[in-house]
Predict the 3D structure of the following.
Amino acid sequence: MIENSLQYQIARAQWKLEVPEHVTQFLAQHVQISRKGTESVGQLYSRNLTSDTIIVDKATLLKPARTQRTRVQFPPGSAMAERKNMFTKGLHCIGLWHSHPEPIPTPSHEDLELASDYAHAAKRQLSGIIFAILGTAPFPTGLAIWIHDGLILHEANPLNLLSRNNINLKSNKAD
């Protein structure tokens, strides 16, 4: 395990997901702290898809086509272009993240459809995609992660509830 990382696992899975500190710090910069804040969205990447522990090596920020306090939309073409670019650097897209304005986030109906669509589109390459939502509570409580296998959205539970509540959640967005 990478020092100061968060680990997650779905029930009965033989593999784990690891989110290193540099990724949690990046994600923490995009939490919706302000009541006037709008949702952010991005993708998650890994170098190695065959390990017993899948490490999220990079998180990116997509430029939204439309964003509000409780909704964000991004152009699929720009997401695909980013995935192709990252692939040339040895990184595989393993999922999506976006922010929510509540402390402990849960997926909306629209989120469930997006996760399912992404999982179906990736079915040939991946057995599931990561779907992460950033809430306003300190991580790990405010970082909710699921894995969608194309049929079901499985909740991933944090394995290490170490004192991660001190991650800086200062937003870079103007209020």
About this structure: The longest helix spans residues 109-122. The first strand starts at residue 6 and ends at 10. The CA atoms of residues 13 and 98 lie 24 Å apart.
